[in-house]
Design a protein that fits this description.
By secondary structure, the chain is of the alpha/beta class. It has 8 helices and 4 strands; from the N terminus they run αααβαβααβαβα. The protein has a 4-stranded parallel β-sheet with strand order 2-1-3-4, sandwiched between helices. β1, α4 and β2 form a beta-alpha-beta unit. It is globular and about 55 Å long.
Length: 190
Amino acid sequence: MNCLACKNKSCRSTVSCGIESFDTTKSLELYHADEQQEIVQKAAYLVDGGRAGELSRIEEVIEFAKTMGYKRVGLAYCYGMEPLAMKVQRLFKAAKVPVVGVSCTVGGVAQKDINRESDLPGVSCNPVNQASQLNAQGVDLAVTIGLCMGHDILFNRIFEKDITNLVVKDRVYGHAPSKGIDAQHERLDS
């Protein structure tokens, strides 16, 4: 299956194309489980019913955190984006959502101790300890801010609760990856 190659797009009108490799009945059972249904309903409140486009991403994240009743939000941020993380923390606090921030350099571990092949001096990004620290602090929702490629994957593997991405790092295009996609696409066309 490759939905990008499909010309029919029947699934957009609630009609299956019939070539899926999953069992829709089992999928619906998963959706109807209480822990998924709560997220489904809260997400629908933000997006469905004409609300899409009314809120910025940060407004959506804060409102979602509040409606889900998360007890504590954790900001997992790149140390290079600490000023932005501080602004995000301030917005959560203003919305009366408990928030903690953990830098990617938490623990102060040397590069050579994390990457067996590195001989670089200095501290390493440490997404495993970053996730572990947020787990230990009882965070219900982790909001990532600019974690490096690969570090985000490690963080997601270790963090035990819900995760959403607020900022995806793209140093070339001002942290707007869609601009990089457009630029690469234009190069293909030229």
